[in-house]
Amino acid sequence: MQTPEPGLHYNVPFETYAAWDAVNNSVLKLMIDKTPAHARHYMLEGRKETPALLFGRAADCYLLEPTRFHMDFAVGPECDKRTREGKALWADFLKTVRPGQEIISQSDYDAIQKIYGVVSASQAMRLIEGGLSQVCCVWKDEPTGLLCKARFDYLQPDIPMITDLKTSQSADPERFAVDIFKYGYYQQAGFYTMGYRAVTGFDMDPPFCIFAIEKEAPYVHNGFELHADTVSAGQIAARRALTLYAKCLAEDKWPAYTDKITILNMPYWALRQTGWGQ
């Protein structure tokens, strides 16, 4: 699949976007959080599918592109596929699934509908209204010459403002602030704002917001605009990852952890807890 010219691209299926030959934030995050070897494996093999990732994609689609939901997802019947009746029911269902559709469970579909019912009346819904969903951004990173790509969950071009939808264990501000660091959301914010400025010529960072929705009832949620310091820290992290990626690509070397034998000690706080040194 040929990668398009730099710019903003609309109505691009995820499968098409995923096939574009350009570096994205998922790869860059692995460069820093783990090793270049992990990033290379991800590039070649893709991300391992999990129930949480599938649920997140389905929830994103239902909230951001509700008219597309039943084109992209099929809801499977609740049945025991170990029994004859369950096997027959499932086989009949599979006959109705169209090519390219992903299958989610009835319980997940019910949860997504409940989430929508709760958040649709929220003031935070303004973060994903009045703009465009699933906007793809392609740009050339000038310092490294790398072609980069990003997929904005939601873009309000008139402001401009980028919003990312996250399902989380907690939407409490203090806990979610930790998640921003723990899961690398700050680097995503930095990378996305760098991309937006590169393709639009905008002379300042657009606001980067997160619509955080808890995964379990009562589906408490919150809208956050990341502070400029956090976005700046994310840009530093993204720049460091891009520089390392470019070096590995040029040398065709993707190192992992050192294979030398080293002396390893527990952290001193752990040693003290054992009574060491007393």
List segments where confidence is low: pLDDT < 50 over at least 5 consecutive residues: none
Q: Could you estimate the helical fraction of the residues in percent?
A: 40-55%
Q: Helix segment count?
A: 11
* Radius of gyration of CA atoms, rounded to a whole number: 21 Å
What is the end-to-end distance? 64 Å
Beta-strand proportion: 15-25%
Q: What structural class do helix, strand and pairing data support? A: alpha/beta
Q: What is the averaged pLDDT score? A: 93
Account of the protein in words:
- This protein is of the alpha/beta class and 278 residues long.
- The chain has a domain at 7-48 and 122-251: Alpha-Beta Complex (Lambda Exonuclease, Chain A), CATH 3.90.320.
- 45% of the residues lie in helices and 19% in strands.
- It is built from 11 helices and 8 strands.
- The chain has helices spanning 14-19, 25-33, 36-45, 51-64, 69-72, 84-94, 106-119, 173-182, 185-200, 228-251, 268-273, and strands at 7-9, 73-76, 102-105, 132-141, 146-156, 161-168, 208-214, 221-225.
- The strands form 2 sheets. It has a 6-stranded mixed sheet with strand order 1-4-5-6-7-8, with helices on both faces. Strands 2-3 form a two-stranded parallel ribbon.
- It is globular.
- The mean pLDDT is 93.
